[in-house]
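HUMAN: Spend a minute on the protein record below and explain its fold to me.
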Amino acid sequence: MTARPDYRVAAIPIERFRRIGLDPPIAVKADIGQLLLIVMGCLGFVAVGLVLINLDNRFERLAGVASVAFFGFGALISTAFLVIVSGRDTLVLSEKGIHLGFYHLDIGWRDVGPAWICTIPLERGQIRDVLFLIRRAPTYKRKLRWDRRLLFAFASWKAKSYGPADDADDELSELRQTVAASDDSVAFPIPSLIRRGLSNEEIVTIINSVVLERNGALPGGANG
């Protein structure tokens, strides 16, 4: 008797990858719950700012104006992002490469370097997230609409302030240094916000497995 496939396991992205690779592609969506919390948090600080604006103390009024302006803008951006990504695949990993849904950008595996888990310093504490290297970044940046181009530039610039890689894999470390040494390479984030169901370790495992399989193509970019 033929064993029935375990569809519950097959639905888990990392298990699908280990069993059948990236054909069909692995597609994930944004974490709407996280986005809603961000929006509500921003609105909460806007409400606090409105209260401060109505106080008599000049310093508190200024703090209130700053809070309304800053967190109001944050709420606006977060809401716009929520509307844009709602119901859409925000990250797709396929045999062809990586699709970043928010940017409407497809990056071929020939231009994907190693991924790693990094430490992002915050005002209070730190979080861990994922970066990966993009070769020929200016070429991809030029394909973007002007607003997405600005966001792409900001994300790659901000990534420079993140902590070093947590891994200790010599092969990956050497390959990462080789790709990063190119003038047209940038480190780019894949935040947990856009990949519900894929942990830091899982997305790094998938990307690096493909990169190592094709690492002969990376330095020269001859194959794709």
